[in-house]
Structures are given as structure tokens and as C-alpha cells.
């Protein structure tokens, strides 16, 4: 059925939803309805007897709650991400869901963002790889993915109105880059446009982002849907390239579309374009209804546990205090979070789990010989004793700590501390928990702190006094078992941070501009977000991007770097050895550093690739990581294109962004410079241009060989002249070259560079 076979009313109706999570069918045209579902780490299903048109927040049908992106991303294991995508697809199919509203890949610009639990990293390469792996897992198994939230949805504050004001270079290199890579490589069936605006234009009406960049530049052919309630003007949104308004408006905006076409204000061809995409989307994604019973939930619970095992990050381990010896002494498990675990974030991604592993139960199971005692230490609103006397609860915990050999202290953030819909205003742990921590340390120094949090928390005021520090983030329904396995060494932790933990919030690059005011947030730090910013400012951090310890140790040997045979890739080989006593997994990270003297300010290093390697004690293995040469490019605002500058790059093999183990140099030829030259271009730009340089020198030699040889020999003259427009140089040199002749030279360059 093509668009022109439908009535105008049908077409308008088709481009908005039927219910909260469904698209409209057009029976007479054989166009089926598609059922969609949140969220990125598990199906947020509606209550079995919910009203289709109503938002129903009653406990939903259970589904597997996998570790949210903050944890999955900390695994740095793309195979696991792919398997999670496949498992989500299986549960979606079992429920007749054709499209999942995820993954979310927005960059963690500020630690305060309430939704950071739902995103992967502060780095676009990491986010692109993880978003892509989940999408491939979903779509290879017949469930569409919805890449979100396009774009620059990096805060919850005023999210439905705020304009993210971002210069072109950070927009391209940081905030669009993961979207671009995924759209070009993994071809998501849908993209969800964000609530916010970019540079003053709301995304749902942003032609430049929705059409010029997403479709014309990147070749996206799927469906663009709105975030729920993001459309302000349906007609303008259709014009900009938004195909599907969600949720429906009870026909109000459908009538606006009909009226606009009828009045000649909206070209029907624009509507037809959206209809064609919706028809293709509907036929591709419609699925028969299902009750969910055919999905392998036990297998998925095990997968959720395997992901959690690999996501836990060991930040500190002095002594080493961990792993605990199951047969030794008494272990005090303190903290309500050990009994009432927080394993996912709040908002639209919230899943009703099929089951939940309780950390305390699994600690008791694994502790066989050790004697385990529990004390809540602090009340939680969703715990069994929310109204307990906090002082009494804390006193009891301190007494237990004093009487025990080792303390495992569960600390973290509660649902009310962070969520979709609002941002945090600080990054500290709750005051009652900090007070408890200090009282416990005063009576027993042998403390392992286990954190449960979606956004990073400030650890610096106390972490030096804590021998062991385990960052669990939010680990999904099977995280409780994983924490016990790591604490007792049944699993050797191998997770790595995908977000820097700063010493102070004030050190974060976005601190002075987040979350903006009066409808605007200025991304003043440019490309220097996350580790890029901390590195550039030479700021000490508590724990750097990519950091994570193990119960064993690894050595890096024999790094080699070469251009790939096809010239399109850079191939890095490094040998990793397990130099400790336990089997373990190491995540090798590859960073690049641009040549000295870059024409633009560049981060000290940028992640280009990574790989996991599992090694037995004493074993070593060569790891190969390849990345596209194009990844070395920066976005030239002047030339409005990506540019690879020529020169010597440093390629680093690292255990974290601040633990570079080996590095090697790589000579890279510049792009054939197609930069336009003109009389206002500086002498330095002319001389650096592969075509303009020789032309100019040949012309200069004809009228002033002395100047030419001085330019060649006199570095100071060359450095000074570097910043002087050519027409001024010509004037300085006594009218060395007339302006007409300079313009003619520029024309010759333009012709030669096409
Ligand atoms: C929410 C979220 C989006 C979600 C959608 C549907 O507001 O921003 O991620 O998929 O609405 O629930």
C-alpha cells in the first residue's frame, strides 16, 4: 500500500500513535499496528488489564531486569551487550512487541544528570560500540531498536524546553558521533528525537538534525519518532522530518495536519514521506500478540548475573582485604541496601523483575564457614523498616561492626536521590550513610564498602580510609549474587569505569554551565567533556575513566601499530600477560594522541578501541584492536568537514585513561587538503596546503628568491608569518604580489582541489 492509496485523514492518523505504546493500524489498507515497549534494559510492560490509551503505572507484567547501561557499559564487554540485545528481543517477541525503545546513548556530560544510569559513558566511542552491540543483538533477532535520545539530551532539568547550545565541533565530535556511527553501521529501525532543543531549535522541529544530518548526510532510512510529548507543533515537526508523534493527542493534531494540507500550508508530499516510512515500519515490526510465556526467563536471569559479574568495578583493594576468606571469622554485613537492593533506575525504564537476588542472602550462601551477621545501619523508604529510629539502627550497626572481624558496608543512592525526570544537585552519599561510615571506621578499620548508585558519587573524603571499595552501580535483578561472588572471589572483578569519578563536583568540566538557566544550557567545555576535560585541565581525579582493579595483575608487552592493508584502518597489537595468581579478565584500552601543533585544541588522548582478554595465571596472549583511520579526525568548523591532520600520532595501550602501559608512534598522512584558500588565508595556511604551498613558493621565488630562502631557513620568520594573511604579507613585501595575482593563485588552487 503506497501513501497515495490512502485518504488524507488516514495519512494524518497514521503519523501519530494509537495508544501509549502502539501505532495506528489502517485495516482497509492492510497496515498493521506495531506494539513498542520501554526500556533499554528490560521490558516495562503494562499491567495485563491496562487501558490502551491510558498511562498505567500499576506493577507491570514481569520481565528480566538486566543491568542498566551504567553497569553494562562498565563491563567493556561487547559480546555481553550483544547477548543482552538478543535476550531483550526474545522477551519482546514473546510479548508481541516489535520495537524496543532503547538503547539510550547520550553522553554523560555532568555527573549530576539524573538519568546517567541509563546511558553508557562519557565517551562517544564507548557509547557507539555499546549502543551498536545492543542494537545488533535486538535486530538480528527480529526486534527493532530505537536509538535515543537524539540528540544532546544530557540533563533532566527543564528537559522539555531547554536548548543545548553547542558549538559545531563538540556537537559533531562528542554529542552526535555515537549516533552517527550507529546509524551508518547498525541501521536502527527507529530514532527517537529528544525533548530538548539544540542551538535554539527544538529537536522535533530541527530540520538540520532530523533531515540534513540524520538522513542526507548519514543516510538514515528508518523512522523518526518523538519522545513522549516532545512534539510542540505537529505540522512543523513533519516538515522537519519527524514521522511519528507519540503518544497520540486524541486526534487533535491529526486534524491540524489535515487542515494544514487542505490549506496548502503543508505540502502533502511531506506527509506522504512520513507515511511511506510508517508503512514500512509497520510491516517490518508488527508481531502477533503474546503472553510472554515462551521466553527463557531462567536463562535470562543467568545472563543478567553474568553481565553483573563483569560489570562490578573494584576501585580499591588495600591489604588486599578482598576477596574475603569464606571460612574466616565473623563478617558484619551492614546497610539496608544489602537487604533491599537498588538494582535499576527510576522512570520510564523501570522494569518489574522476574526475581531479585538479595546480596545478603547470597553472601550468607557463599560464606559457608564464616559467621555472617546483618544490621541495616540506615532506613530506606522502600525497606522493611522505613520508620525505624535512625539513631538506634545506626547504633546497633556500629556495635556489630565493633564485634566483627570484617565489615561489608553497603552504601549508595536511593530511588528518590536520582531518576529520570530530575537531576541531582550534589554527588555525595546521603548524610546518614556518611555518618554511619565514619562511626564504623572508628571501631573497625577492616571495611569493604560496596556502592549501589546510578550516577557516580564523591568518594574522596573517605575512600583513603576504606581498604576495599567496590562500585556496583545498578546491577539489575541478578546483581545481588554477583556482588557476593566478587566479595568472596568466586568471580574475579574486571569491570572498568566508563565515567570519571572526580575528587569534587567542582572539578567536572561542565560544572560552571550545568544545568543552564532561562531555557539555555551552554556547553562551554566544548569537546573537553569527561576525561577529555580532566586531562586537559591537568586535574587530579579520584578514579579515572577506564579504571578498574582485579584480584590478579596484568602486564602489557610488545605493542605494535600499523596502518591496515586497506589503508582505512589502524591495527594495534599488544600482548597482555596475567602476572598474578588468579585467572582474570583485562580490558585493554587504546587511546590516540594527536600530533603536536594541531590547528585546533585537541584532547590529550581519546579512546579509539578496546578489547577484553581472559587469561589464566601465567598466560599471555596477543590482543588485536582495529579502528578506522577516520576516527583520528577532528571536525573543522572553518571547512565544515572532518579533517585528519598529518603528522606523528601517539597510540597508547592502557589499563585506564591515566594508566598508559605502552605507546608507539604512528605517522599519518594528512587528508588531501581541500581547504579553500584566499587572500585572507595566512601565509602559514598557504604554505601548509599541498597545492597552494608549491604554487605560492614558485611565484615568490620568481620575484624575491631571498624571501623564499629566508622562509625556508628562518623558523622565527615562518612562525611570525604563519598568522599573517597573505595579502598583508604581499603588501609588507612592497607589493611583492598584486592582489589580483593573489586572487588568481587562489582560483588555481580551487580548480585543482575541485
Ligand atoms: C520517556 C523517555 C523515553 C521513553 C518514553 C516512553 O519520557 O524520555 O526514553 O522511551 O518516554 O516511555
Quick structural summary:
The protein has 754 residues and is of the alpha/beta class. Helix content is 31%, strand content 19%.
Low-confidence runs of at least 5 consecutive residues: none
Strand segment count = 28
Any guess at the CATH architecture of the largest domain? Alpha-Beta Barrel
Q: How many DSSP helices?
A: 22
Q: Can you identify the CATH superfamily of the largest domain?
A: Glycoside hydrolase, family 3, N-terminal domain
> Biggest β-sheet: count, sense, barrel?
6 strands, mixed
Tell me the Rg in angstroms.
Answer: 29 Å
**Percent of residues in β-strands:** 15-25%
Top-tier CATH class of the largest domain: Alpha Beta
Shape: globular
CATH topology of the largest domain: TIM Barrel
Structural class: alpha/beta
Strand order of the largest sheet: 11-16-15-14-12-13
- The averaged pLDDT comes out at 94
Attached small molecules: alpha-D-glucopyranose
Can you tell me the number of structural domains?
4
Distance N terminus to C terminus?
44 Å
Task: Report the helical percentage.
Answer: 25-40%
Characterise this structure:
This protein is an alpha/beta fold and 754 residues long. It has four domains: 271 residues, Alpha-Beta Barrel (TIM Barrel), CATH 3.20.20; 240 residues, 3-Layer(aba) Sandwich (Rossmann fold), CATH 3.40.50; 115 residues, Immunoglobulins (Immunoglobulin-like), CATH 2.60.40.10; 71 residues, no CATH class. Helix content is 31%, strand content 19%. The protein is built from 22 helices and 28 strands. It has a six-stranded mixed beta sheet, with helices on both faces. The chain has a five-stranded parallel beta sheet with strand order 3-4-5-7-10. β20 and β21 form a beta hairpin. It is globular and about 90 Å long. 53% of the residues are buried. The model has no long low-confidence stretch (mean pLDDT 94). The site of alpha-D-glucopyranose has 6 residues, from loops. Alpha-D-glucopyranose binds next to loops.
Amino acid at each position: 500500500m503506497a501513501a497515495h492509496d490512502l485518504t488524507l485523514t488516514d495519512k494524518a492518523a497514521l503519523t501519530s500513535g494509537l495508544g501509549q505504546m502502539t501505532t495506528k493500524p489502517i485495516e482497509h489498507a492492510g497496515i498493521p499496528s506495531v506494539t513498542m515497549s520501554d526500556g533499554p534494559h528490560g521490558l516495562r510492560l503494562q499491567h495485563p488489564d491496562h487501558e490502551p490509551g491510558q498511562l498505567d503505572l500499576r506493577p507491570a507484567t514481569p520481565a528480566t531486569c538486566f543491568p542498566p547501561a551504567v553497569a553494562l557499559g562498565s563491563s567493556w564487554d561487547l559480546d555481553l551487550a550483544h547477548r543482552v540485545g538478543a535476550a531483550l528481543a526474545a522477551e519482546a517477541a514473546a510479548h508481541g512487541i516489535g520495537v524496543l525503545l532503547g538503547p539510550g546513548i547520550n553522553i554523560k556530560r555532568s555527573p549530576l544528570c539524573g538519568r546517567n544510569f541509563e546511558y553508557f559513558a562519557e565517551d562517544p566511542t564507548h557509547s557507539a560500540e555499546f549502543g551498536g552491540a545492543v542494537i545488533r543483538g535486538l535486530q538480528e533477532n527480529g526486534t527493532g531498536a530505537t536509538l535515543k535520545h537524539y540528540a544532546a539530551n544530557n540533563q533532566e532539568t527543564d528537559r522539555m524546553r531547554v536548548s543545548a547550545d553547542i558549538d559545531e565541533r563538540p556537537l559533531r565530535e562528542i554529542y552526535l558521533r555515537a549516533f552517527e556511527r550507529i546509524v551508518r553501521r547498525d541501521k536502527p529501525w527507529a530514532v527517537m528525537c529528544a525533548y530538548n532543543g539544540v542551538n535554539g531549535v527544538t529537536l522535533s522541529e530541527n530540520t538540520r538534525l532530523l533531515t540534513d544530518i540524520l538522513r542526507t548526510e548519514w543516510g538514515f532510512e528508518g523512522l523518526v519518532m518523538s519522545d513522549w510529548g516532545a512534539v510542540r507543533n505537529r505540522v512543523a515537526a513533519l516538515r522537519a522530518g519527524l514521522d511519528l508523534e507519540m503518544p497520540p493527542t486524541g486526534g487533535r493534531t491529526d486534524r491540524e495536519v489535515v487542515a494544514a494540507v487542505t490549506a496548502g500550508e503543508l505540502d502533502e508530499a511531506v506527509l506522504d514521506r512520513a507515511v511511506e516510512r510508517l508503512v514500512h515500519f509497520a510491516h517490518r515490526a508488527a508481531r502477533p500478540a503474546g503472553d510472554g510465556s515462551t521466553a527463557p526467563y531462567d536463562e535470562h536471569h543467568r545472563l543478567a548475573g553474568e553481565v553483573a559479574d563483569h560489570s562490578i568495578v573494584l576501585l580499591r583493594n588495600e591489604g588486599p582485604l578482598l576477596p574475603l576468606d569464606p571460612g574466616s571469622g565473623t563478617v558484619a554485613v551492614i546497610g539496608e541496601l544489602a537487604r533491599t537492593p537498588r538494582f535499576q533506575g527510576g522512570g520510564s525504564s523501570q522494569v518489574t523483575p522476574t526475581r531479585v537476588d538479595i546480596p545478603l542472602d547470597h553472601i550468607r550462601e557463599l560464606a559457608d564457614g564464616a559467621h555472617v551477621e546483618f544490621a541495616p545501619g540506615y532506613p530506606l523508604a522502600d525497606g522493611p523498616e522505613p520508620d525505624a529510629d535512625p539513631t538506634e539502627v545506626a547504633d546497633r550497626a556500629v556495635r556489630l561492626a565493633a564485634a566483627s572481624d570484617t565489615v561489608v558496608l553497603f552504601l549508595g543512592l536511593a530511588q528518590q536521590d536520582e531518576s529520570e525526570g530530575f537531576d541531582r544537585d550534589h554527588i555525595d552519599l546521603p548524610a546518614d550513610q556518611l555518618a554511619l561510615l565514619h562511626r564504623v571506621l572508628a571501631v573497625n578499620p577492616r571495611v569493604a564498602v560496596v556502592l549501589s548508585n546510578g550516577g557516580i558519587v564523591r568518594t574522596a573524603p573517605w575512600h583513603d580510609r576504606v581498604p576495599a571499595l567496590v562500585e556496583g552501580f545498578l546491577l539489575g535483578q541478578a546483581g545481588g549474587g554477583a556482588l557476593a561472588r566478587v566479595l568472596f572471589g568466586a568471580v574475579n572483578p574486571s569491570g572498568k569505569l566508563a565515567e570519571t569519578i572526580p575528587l569534587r563536583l567542582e572539578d567536572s568540566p561542565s560544572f560552571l554551565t550545568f544545568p543552564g538557566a532561562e531555557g539555555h544550557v551552554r556547553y562551554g567545555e566544548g569537546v573537553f567533556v569527561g576525561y577529555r576535560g580532566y586531562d586537559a585541565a591537568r586535574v587530579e581525579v579520584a578514579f579515572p575513566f577506564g579504571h578498574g582493579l582485579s584480584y590478579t595483575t596484568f602486564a602489557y608487552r610488545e605493542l605494535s601499530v600499523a596502518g591496515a592493508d586497506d589503508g582505512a584502518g589502524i591495527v594495534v597489537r599488544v600482548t597482555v600477560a596475567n602476572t598474578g595468581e588468579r585467572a582474570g579478565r583485562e580490558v585493554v584500552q587504546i587511546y590516540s594522541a594527536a600530533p603536536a601543533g594541531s590547528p585546533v585544541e585537541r584532547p590529550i588522548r581519546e579512546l579509539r578501541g578496546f578489547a577484553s582478554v581472559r587469561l589464566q595465571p601465567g598466560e599471555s596472549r596477543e590482543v588485536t584492536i582495529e579502528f578506522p583511520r577516520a576516527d583520528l579526525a577532528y571536525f573543522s568548523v572553518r571547512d565544515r568537514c572532518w579533517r585528519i591532520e598529518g603528522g606523528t600520532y601517539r597510540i597508547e595501550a592502557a589499563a585506564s585513561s591515566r594508566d598508559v602501559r605502552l605507546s608507539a608512534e604512528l605517522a599519518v598522512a594528512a587528508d588531501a587538503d581541500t581547504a579553500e584558500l584566499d587572500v585572507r588565508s595566512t601565509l602559514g595556511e598557504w604554505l601548509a596546503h599541498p597545492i597552494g604551498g608549491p604554487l605560492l613558493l614558485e611565484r615568490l621565488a620568481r620575484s624575491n628568491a631571498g624571501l623564499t630562502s629566508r622562509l625556508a631557513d628562518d623558523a622565527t620568520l615562518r612562525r611570525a608569518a604563519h598568522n599573517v594573511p597573505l595579502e598583508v604579507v604581499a603588501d609588507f613585501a612592497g607589493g611583492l604580489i598584486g592582489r589580483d595575482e593573489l586572487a588568481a593563485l587562489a582560483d588555481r588552487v580551487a580548480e585543482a582541489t575541485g
